[in-house]
Amino acid sequence: MNLQKIVLAGGCFWGVERYFQTLKGVVDTEVGYANSRMENPSYEAVCTGFTDAAEAVEITFNPEIISLKTILDHYMKIIDPYSLNKQGNDVGTQYRTGIYYTSEKELPVIKEVLQKEVEKTGKKLRIEVLPLANFYKAEEYHQDYLKKNPYGYCHIPIPPDEV
Predict the structure, then answer these.
(1) CA-to-CA distance for 21 and 27, rounded, in angstroms?
(2) Which residues are catalytic?
(3) What is the pLDDT of residues 89-103, one digit of tens each?
(4) Which fold is adopted by the domain 4-134?
(5) Cut 0.90: pTM above it
(6) Distance of CA 73 to the CA centre of its chain
(7) Which of these, 83, 119, 117, lies nearest to 9 by C-alpha position?
(8) pLDDT for the residue 110
(9) pLDDT, tens only, 41-57
């Protein structure tokens, strides 16, 4: 199986992870901290804003079942792409939106999806698009948080079992 990965930041990583876990073709998710200037930061360090890390989800998917474009189309449905450093009630640089790619080959698809959004509204997007410099797995209690705590806080409507 030829799997691909993309890292997406969309505010609190709990809801972003839970949403993508429901999509057919997504084979694994892991929450963590993307593009940190501190090696292996803790949640507490990330919350200070000094690490420059974004709460993010590493999504592993089977491109024969779900395309990167489809994943990004879903991403655009669950974030506010015009909000800077804020999603839902969560405020801070760690809650910014971002698409972190691992291959230059992904850029045309990313740009296509973002351009489509700009054309709909004419507004400036606040989504950071950068190569993935690093991704550090978050603490275990954050992994699958909304599966373990189905009534936990989430700024994204909890999805049905199948989207």
Answers:
(1) 8
(2) 12
(3) 999 999 999 999 999
(4) Peptide Methionine Sulfoxide Reductase; Chain A (3.30.1060)
(5) yes
(6) 12
(7) 83
(8) 98
(9) 999 999 999 999 999 99
**Spatial CB neighbours of 123, under 8 Å, sequence gap ≥ 6:** 82
Nearest Cα neighbor of 82 from 41, 117, 47, 108 is 117
Q: The tokens 């079992």 sit on which residue?
A: 161
Backbone dihedral angles phi then psi of residue 29, each to the nearest 5 degrees: -135, 150
Q: Which residue shows structure tokens 């609190």?
A: 12
- Contact yes or no for 79/97 (Cβ under 8 A): yes
Regarding beta strands 97-101 and 127-131, do their DSSP bridges make them parallel or antiparallel, or are they unpaired?
A: parallel
- Beta-bridged to residue 135, according to DSSP, are 34
Q: Which of the four pLDDT bands, split at 50, 70 and 90, describes residue 4?
A: very high
In the predicted structure, residue 157 carries a pLDDT above the cut 80? no
Residue 161: the pLDDT is 53
Annotated domain spans of the chain? 4-134
Provide the H-helix boundaries in the chain. Answer: 13-21, 43-48, 68-78, 107-121, 145-148
SS3 69: helix
